[in-house]
Amino acid sequence: MAVAEEKDWNDRSSHDLLNVDRVLRLLTSRHSCDMAERHYRALDKLIARNESGFHVRETLALGKLIRAAASATGTDRLYDNYIQKIVQICGKTFVRDKASDELLYKSETVGVLIEIGNLLLHSVCVFVHQSVAIAIRKIFNNVPSTGSEQRTTFAFNVQIIEESRVAEALIRCLEKTTDMNVTGDILKTLKVLSVSVRNCDQILSNNGARTVCLLLKEKKHSALAVDTLWNLFEYSGNKQVVASQLSSFTCIRCICDSFRALVHARSQSEKGSRNDVAVIAHYVSSFCDEAPFVETGFVALLASTFTETKTMNPISRNLKLTSCHEDFEFKKLMMSLMVTFRENAAALHVMRDHFVLLSLFSFVKPNNKASDQWTPAQFEELQLLALSCLSSLCRTCKETYVTCQGSTRLLLLLEWAASKEERWKSQIKLSLHVLLSVVALRDETIIGELSDQGAIEQFVYILSRSAVSSAIDVDITTSLLLILSHLCDNDLHRKELFGMNGVEALVPFVKVPLQWFDSGLGHYRLVLATIDVCWCCVVGSSLTEDAFLEYEGIFLLLDLLEFCSNNMQSLVLGCVLDLCENPKSLSHVLTWRGCTGTTNVYQLLLRLWKEEEKALGMARTCDGVLSDVANPLRGQSFQPELSQQKVGSLAIVDVVGNMRAKIWALFSKIGFGDDQNARLSIEDRITLELAKEFMNLKVGEIWLEIDRELNEEGVDVTPFDKECIEEIKQWTRNKTEQLIEKQKTVLSQRSLAIDDEERIYYTKIKKSHEMSDKASDDWMQFLERTSDMSALLKAREDQLEVILASKSGRETHPHKKRTHATHQVSLKTTTFSGRQVSVKTSIVPPLPAVGERKEEGGTRKRELVTV
Predict the structure, then answer these.
(1) Can you give 631-668 as a three-state secondary structure string?
(2) pTM given for the model
């Protein structure tokens, strides 16, 4: 029967095309599973038929065929050769007839790659391992075939490799293999696959970064290992995971040994590998502060690469860096690496022993002379990087900073750069960053040294020439202001050194245009720094305060307070409040009238008070009157926020947390504006009544809080103390009720004021109508007099009666005699006459004027009429 089957097989295979399904049935059939020779012939024919690649529609059977052949290798190692050939064909990517085949047979194709990946784990043949690694790499790279077949797309190949998780199989095979050729092929494949995020995650899930890092000690494969690790850092979703896998002592030792072997590299490729290892170390030290770089000697090795200071260290003495690109990048990497150890005390000790800061300070000098080692452009870039590194390291190495005379070096560089052209602004900016990081430590030795060397005068001179037109100008000015505030804080002598020149240079920055806050150049920090300088350099010295007032500084601060953002108002108000300790400031504050000239300081402060209450969620009626008698000063939004914090007293923290206490203090200095009622609105007057009682209500609130805490803690007070507490509570309640009554009184005054305004307005309307009626009556009487002679005579009689009634009678005053006529006989008008008479009449021919007569010749002759 077997002979018949073999004959039938040979006959069909000679006429029909041999496909994967038939070969699979031959290998798995219980009748032919032991016929190895027939298997070999069938596999040879299948490989010859599909030499250009397997079709995606056959991938389901192909995966089963690879699994069957792999299981047969346990009894016959010849199957490994056929598996190797099949895998090599798969490396040519798969063939498709139409684009929809990728969608239809995607899962089957993924199954094939899964089986190929399993070969790495279960097969013991190194040639199979090499073939699998090469095939996966070719599929991922989508190497084009020379045939005319239509191949699967690159996106499809990447997707099936990611879903088959062959990267996990590769890393697990790399971990256990001992063959260097297989290791090289797998590393090449991992380097290619690690540009995908999903593949990186699969590699890291099997601790792949550590496995690859251990191969750094192999000189043959160190370059591939470094490239793979670099890809893991660059393309993985979580760099922290990569760094944590490399932070073990073994991995750091491998990195250190690899770097030590390459530190004296001569060829360009070796120098590139050296820089790559340094980048890997930089990544690890940036994400893992606890990595054992000091214990493995890596920090000491890095510190030995700083050759600017002559030492007896053999590494430093034998290291020769040139101006080539690789050595230049290496130098920058060494500087950047040292900054990552700024919080490590042991690493700082190593740096101090190897004079790292002194080497960095060797770049802090004017660029007058060309360097023997670096080009001018390279030296300037290294100088800027050294200054940036010093700004991070000096704050943790104060003693070394003083020993290296850092302040003197920086001031000399600042003096040189400030006297040059615009292109040296970067040196000014970074030098100021170093000084700011040092003076922020508030070490009196460093601050005193800077002051003694004339730093305040030098900074004031630079500040007077500063502009704020660009981001770097804003940064320089901000740093200058912050340094000055640190130098002059709490020291009267240094404030006097700041003097009038400093105030004159400061005032232009207090004049804050509105567009600064939306410029995006950092003007917001500049404004904060300006307020800090006003507080630290001006307030507290009568000399600087008087100069600041002379330059209208208090007006500028109030202008800033009027339109600045909410989170800046408290700082500006505090500065104004401290300036008001000077009695000369009060008149300036009361004179201020705002940017528009219509707002006084009372209106501004009351507006801030209302905004603060709105932000705190105070309980008020719609008219602004108090509605919460129990807690008149506590807001709804402020209370739960403080309850989550472990604070001692909510009432005290409330004073610090908002501006009401500062506003009350400023009112206490300038007065509560009893004479300002006419200028204030009713809402402002209601708020002002609350501001007057703020301190009384705050005292009562503190006592209520004390009573509540005593009750919560179960403390029994003495009867006398209890009586005092009850009296205080009653006093607080009475104060609150009195305040509410005052506010209601002010509110009622508003109603009366509204009624008075309405009454006056209606009176004006009534008078307007009365005058229009009288004008109409006068016109009608005038028409009647001009049209009716009897009416005219009657008006004349009435006029004469009025005149006679206004005269004193003869009987009453017999001793008085008339000496002259009281009326003009020739007058022809019917109204009371004066020096000027206005006559309303229709157009008539002109008549001779009074005192004129018409002559016969038609001319008029004027003659004087005497009365």
Answers:
(1) CCCCCCCHHHHHHCCCCCCHHHHHHHHCCHHHHHHHHH
(2) 0.76
